[in-house]
Amino acid sequence: MALTFPLHRNPYPATDDAVARVLADPGFGDHFTDHMAVAIWTKDGGWGADEVKPYGPFQMDPASAVLHYAQEVFEGMKAYRHADGSIHLFRPEANAHRFQNSAARLMLPQLPGEDFVRACAELVRADAAWVPDAEGERSLYLRPFMFASEVFLGVRAAQTVTFCVIASPAGPYFTGGVKPVDIWVTDTYARAGVGGTGSAKCGGNYAASLIAQYEGYDHGCSQVLFIEAADKDRVEELGGMNVFLVTADGRLVTPALTGTILEGITRDSILTVAGDLGLVPEERRITPEELFGGIADGTTVEAFSCGTAAVVTPIGAFKSAQGEWRLPENGSPATMAIRNAILDIQYGRAADDHGWMRPIA
Ligand SMILES: Cc1ncc(COP(=O)(O)O)c(C=O)c1O
């Protein structure tokens, strides 16, 4: 039976002043709204206990399985307010689908896509006052997640699982304008291997990527790019974003989906709109030699990373233990055109020709 997520309203919501203060400068991931959506799955009873309720801590038994075996998956998406005040989700069915794939890989239960989308929509409706206005690239970030809440020790699939969605107002990723970022290409650490969890959005992937991220910080870079683990012969993705190259002859090249990288929804959307911008999308293998050599010989004229949080971010240089490859300082015209094309759809400033926006309030 479909879940309905009935609202049990928070009797002590944040005051209008407190919400206004947060929305004036939301940052990212620091403030949470008045409510959260929750549902519980048990092996015998399936999904139930669904509700939107006051935001607050879970009571966790120290033997909850997720704390020991990391059986957990999550999603990241945003609600956007348009100029007319309406609120929209961007391709939530795609997040629902990826959540199902991630859950299957982690032996977590399947949450029907319509229940996933309803949970997000009902939470946003309850907390509509927390969705910033359309000015300045602000949005309400949604974090659906699911974890093994059964109390037991032992390596097996949990028989009690908690699903939850929380929401956090998000400011622009770049305050003071979009600036190119430098990327560290690690050959010390790998993120995923064939048959592993690279294409699942599970917390363990991010825990494992932290050390490489910090290696990048040590080299003055803000993100890290991973190379395929076994043969080191193809570029994969960043710790939390996909990567694209733009060539001098107008091709938009990104690593093909090989099961070891996350199927980014921004990535897919960019591949879809590329043609409208006169670019030829190409999903294929990119070797490290092509990545570095293409910048050195002028074949590659732009590079950018993409994901829900930062949308599209120009890359200034790739750095590795072997050297540094700096992209031309050309203002990243193709990158910025793609960035604007995606944002214009998300904020309702351009026609939604691909049918991606879901009005919810
Ligand atoms: C590892 C990784 N790759 C790529 C992405 C980009 O995915 P999306 O565009 O769906 O946000 C993310 C962000 O969720 C990520 O964590």
Most strands sheet: 9 strands, mixed
The CATH topology label of the largest domain is D-amino Acid Aminotransferase, Chain A, domain 2
Total number of distinct structural domains: 2
How many strands? 17
Structural Rg: 21 Å
Shape: globular
Specify the CATH class of the largest domain. Alpha Beta
Bound molecules: pyridoxal-5'-phosphate
Percentage of residues in strands: 25-35%
Q: What share of the residues lie within helices?
A: 10-25%
pLDDT < 50 runs, ≥5 residues: none
Please provide a written account of the structure.
By secondary structure, the protein is of the alpha+beta class. It folds into 2 domains: 16-170, D-amino Acid Aminotransferase, Chain A, domain 1; 181-346, D-amino Acid Aminotransferase, Chain A, domain 2 (Alpha-Beta Barrel). Helix content is 25%, strand content 29%. The protein has helices at residues 16-24, 66-69, 92-105, 113-126, 203-218, 265-273, 288-296, 333-346; strands at 35-42, 46-54, 72-74, 77-81, 87-90, 139-148, 160-170, 181-185, 223-227, 235-238, 242-247, 251-255, 280-284, 300-307, 311-320, 323-326, 357-359. The strands form 2 sheets. Strands 8, 9, 10, 11, 12, 13, 14, 15 and 16 form a 9-stranded mixed β-sheet that branches. Strands 1, 2, 3, 4, 5, 6, 7 and 17 form an 8-stranded antiparallel β-sheet that branches. Helix 3 crosses helix 4. The chain is globular. The structure holds pyridoxal-5'-phosphate. Residues 76, 237, 240-242, 262, 264-267, 307-308 line the site of pyridoxal-5'-phosphate.
